[in-house]
Design a protein that fits this description.
The structure holds two protein chains of two kinds. By secondary structure, chain A is mostly beta strands. In chain A, about 0% of the residues lie in helices and about 50% in strands. In chain A, strands 2, 5, 6, 10, 11 and 12 form a six-stranded mixed beta sheet that branches. In chain A, strands 3-9-8-7 form a four-stranded antiparallel beta sheet, with no helix packed on it. Chain A is globular and about 40 Å long. Chain B is mainly β. In chain B, a hairpin with a 5-residue loop joins strand 9 and strand 10. The chains are: A mainly beta, B mainly beta.
């Protein structure tokens, strides 16, 4: 089935620093790809997605480009804020069963003032 | 009001006790999921249901059972809780596309 490997954390940055969290995947075909974010004490929420190769998903200053050549979907932000401190999960459909998602292990991001 | 709610939000119990975690949704979705989250392991799927009459095991279903009482309700039970079931549990729903919507989570501690 499909799988995802996510950059191990934790990641600690100063405010306004550049962020990259790596995500690579193994999949049959070209499935949609997702980044979810989990703020402290909350459930996961969708941050951005890309539905086909070369698409760029973006939201709240975060971006990720679906790269089929390198089977990657790295998350980037040019200038992080303290409020971006959270856990970030890369995900893709789990396989042939529609609706299921397979998640990476999560990357903890801490941003200091 | 939240679209996906979970009760209780926190629960401490003892080994051997039966526990039920409840999930309700107002999104009108047919598909519902139960996950557990452990540090460093991401989310792992316990059970999922694509409609009221359809229940499927996920990757870690041993020691758990579920009940889909209605389209809007999906409960997770631990028949005899053990300490390694201490974790954060999430319910989620999805509609016609792969995007999932999560509840706030239930923190379960088994002593």
């Amino acid at each position: 089935g499909n799988s995802v490997t996510q950059m191990e954390g934790p990641v600690t940055l100063s405010e306004e620093a550049f962020l990259t969290i790596n995500c690579t995947y193994t999949a049959t075909g070209y499935p949609s790809l997702f980044w979810y974010v989990q703020y402290p004490g909350e459930g996961l929420q969708l941050l951005l997605k890309a539905t086909k190769a070369d698409d760029k998903g973006s939201n709240k200053g975060f971006e990720a480009t679906y790269r089929k050549e390198t089977t990657s979907f790295h998350l980037e932000k040019g200038s992080v804020q303290v409020s971006d401190s959270a856990v970030y999960f890369c995900a893709l459909p789990g396989g042939t069963s529609y609706g299921k998602l397979t998640f990476g292990q999560g990357t903890i991001l801490t941003v200091h003032p | 009001d939240a679209d996906v709610t979970q009760t209780p939000r926190n629960r401490i119990t003892k080994t051997g006790k039966r526990i039920m975690l409840e999930c309700s949704q107002t999104k009108g979705h047919d598909r519902m999921y139960w996950y557990r989250q452990d540090p460093g392991l991401g989310l792992r799927l316990i059970y999922y249901s694509f409609d009221v009459k359809d229940i499927n095991k996920g990757e870690i279903s041993d020691g758990y059972s579920v009940s889909r009482q209605a389209q809007a309700k999906f409960s997770l039970s631990l028949e005899s809780a053990i300490p390694n079931q201490t974790a954060l549990y999430f319910c989620a729903t999805s509609g016609e596309v792969n995007e999932q919507f999560f509840g706030p989570g239930t923190r379960l501690t088994v002593l």
